[in-house]
Amino acid sequence: MMNWHMKKALFLIAMIPVIHLPVDAQVLFSGTSGNFVTDSKAPGVNVRAPNGGERLQYDIPMTIRWEAQDESFGATPIALTIRTAPGGPWTILANGLPNTGSQVVNPPGITSDHALVKVSARDIYGNMGEDVSDACFYLDDMFSGVTGTFITDSKPPDVMVIRPNGGEWLGYMDSLDVAWTATDDEWGHHPISVAVSKQPGGSYSFIQTDLDNTGFARVAPPEAVTEYARVWVVAVDYFGSVGYDKSDAYLKFDDRFSDTTANSFKTDSKPPEVLVGMPNGGERVDFSEPVLVTWTATDESLGANPISIGLSTEEGGSYSIIAPNLPNSGSTVISSLGVITRFARIFVIARDYFGVEGEDRSDEYFIVEDLFTGGSASFVTDSKPPEITVLVPNGGEGYFFSDPLLVKWDASDDSFGPLPVVKISVSTDGGLTYQTVASGLPDIDSAFVTAPEAITQQAMVKIKVKDSFGLVADDESDGVFSLLGLYTDLKAFLEGPFTGTEMNTIMNQFGYLPLSQPFSAPPWNYGGTESVQAIPNSDVVDWVLIELRDAPDAVSATSATTIGRRAGFILRNGMVTGADGVSDMIFGIPVTQNLFAIVRQRNHLAVMSALPLNRTNDTFDYDFTTGAEQAFGGNLGHKEIGTGIWGMAGGDGDANGTVNNGDKNDIWVQQAGTSGYLPGDFNLDSDVNNSDKIEIWVPNGGRSSQVPL
Question: Are 438 and 423 in contact (CB under 8 A)?
Answer without folding.
Answer: yes
